[in-house]
């Protein structure tokens, strides 16, 4: 991380503490390990992020917006001045779960040789960190800072919207709590693909609230 100019590391429910062995392996970058923030869940870790990209080594049953490594670096750098951004890496052996990947706006997959696609966690971190570094240097060399006009909702705001949406479609009996099926997962995918702005999310929540008020009046 430090080699590529990255300094903020977040650990989610780590299985061990940052000990002397970890400091020794950090090889001159011990401050990153010592200053790592620790959260109990991924949802808590990315709550304040406006852009979250999760790493995935394989295609999933539920398709999600995908980025190439270079696109990932460019997108993270282009939005870093707007809000907090995050790259999420999974466990060494099993990666990220489907539920964890659904907390991400985009997935990124390294297009390795399908006949020998072995890539460990450290390699993946270094490769994607390199792409972030290259995107940052390109921005510096062009002397043009990104001026995105859109203000995107933070992760926790999106989660509140999804909870509100699920509540309303249960109230209207579009889905049932007993057999919700894949409706919410597919709606999440749709909104993730569309990536609505913060103002648009507020409009959608206003519509949901008006539906609830209409239901209450009829009751």
Features:
four-stranded parallel sheet, about 10% strand, two-stranded parallel ribbon, Alpha/beta knot, about 220 residues
What does this structure look like?
The N and C termini lie far apart (57 Å). The chain has helices at 20-26, 30-34, 42-45, 69-79, 98-101, 121-142, 155-171, 183-194, 198-218; strands spanning 10-12, 37-39, 49-55, 66-67, 84-88, 106-108. Helix 4 (69-79) packs across helix 6. It is α/β, with parallel strands linked by helices and 219 residues long. The strands form 2 sheets. It has a 4-stranded parallel sheet with strand order 4-6-3-5. Strands 1-2 form a two-stranded parallel ribbon. The protein has 2 domains: 2-142, Alpha/beta knot; 155-218, Orthogonal Bundle (Helicase, Ruva Protein, domain 3). The chain is built from 9 helices and 6 strands, in the order βααβαββαβαβαααα. It is an enzyme of class 2 (transferase). Residues 1-130 form the tRNA/rRNA methyltransferase SpoU type domain. One of its GO terms (molecular function) is tRNA (cytidine(32)/uridine(32)-2'-O)-methyltransferase activity. Catalyzes the formation of 2'O-methylated cytidine (Cm32) or 2'O-methylated uridine (Um32) at position 32 in tRNA. One of its GO terms (biological process) is tRNA nucleoside ribose methylation.
């Amino acid at each position: 991380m430090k080699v590529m100019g990255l300094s903020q590391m977040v650990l989610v429910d780590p299985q061990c503490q940052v000990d002397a062995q970890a400091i020794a392996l950090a090889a001159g970058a011990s401050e990153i390990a010592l200053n790592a923030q620790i959260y109990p869940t991924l949802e808590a870790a990315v709550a304040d992020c406006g852009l979250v990209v999760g790493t995935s080594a394989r295609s999933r049953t539920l398709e999600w917006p995908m980025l190439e490594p270079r696109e990932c670096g460019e997108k993270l750098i282009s939005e870093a001045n707007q809000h907090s951004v995050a790259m999420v890496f999974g466990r060494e052996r099993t990666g990220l779960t489907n539920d964890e990947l659904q907390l991400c706006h985009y997935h990124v997959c390294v297009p390795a040789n399908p006949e020998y696609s072995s890539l460990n966690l450290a390699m993946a971190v270094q490769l994607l960190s390199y792409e972030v570094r290259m995107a940052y240097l390109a921005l510096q060399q062009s002397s043009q800072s990104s001026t995105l006009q859109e203000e995107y909702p933070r992760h926790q705001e999106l989660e509140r919207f999804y909870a509100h949406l699920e509540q309303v479609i249960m109230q209207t009996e579009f889905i049932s709590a007993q057999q919700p099926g894949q409706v919410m997962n597919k709606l999440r995918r749709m909104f993730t693909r569309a990536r609505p702005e913060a103002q648009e999310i507020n409009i959608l929540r206003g519509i949901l609230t008006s539906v609830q008020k209409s239901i209450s009046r009829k009751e």
